[in-house]
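--- STAGE predict ---
source: upstream dedup step, 1 unique chain passed
mode: sequence only
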Amino acid sequence: TLFSQKDDLGGKVENKPKEAIIKSRWGIMPALIFYKNTPDFTENTRPGRGLGLSWHGEFNIKRGSRLKLMVGVDYLGQRMVFNGYYHTVQPYIYDKVYNYTHNLWIHQLQFPFLFKQSLGNEDNERNIFYFSGGWAFRALFGASARITDNTTGTQVFKGFSEMSQEHNAIYDGGGGILMGGIGLEHKVSTDYKKAIFLELYREYLDRLH
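--- STAGE serialize ---
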């Protein structure tokens, strides 16, 4: 939020907004997830839904500037369904016969580093559109998984499954994301509380394993 200070000006008292060091924003994130098939290993990958929670801190880059910096942390759970193999013994023949349906709920943390460009004066206008874009570090923890044999209809696995990415950073589940979107800030009260609606696109830079 923004703070207020009082100045004594010849017997007159005026309230002036003072820019905060950091503005906190908490959010709930419904999501639509789109994954592509890896032809040698999967088929019939279906789009899923996701849900997340986020905290972002907004910093002023320069006093009076409409360009801001946002950093924070997001938890995002994502559903993913596809047909593929199920390895029980080795060696396994990759014959492109995908007899198993994998139903996953993927757990991850994301640490975004975003720039925000407002299209108006946030202090004076009730509704402001803005653009946001940047990069995020993705910390992938694994997935709650169910695997079903399509030939018999029986469930052959239920539990937690480890996951990794094609190119790892820092550790096996570390990777990168490009992010960009457009948002709307609506001022809901005179003490600078706002409701924020953000449409954000995330492009994952690495394939899942």
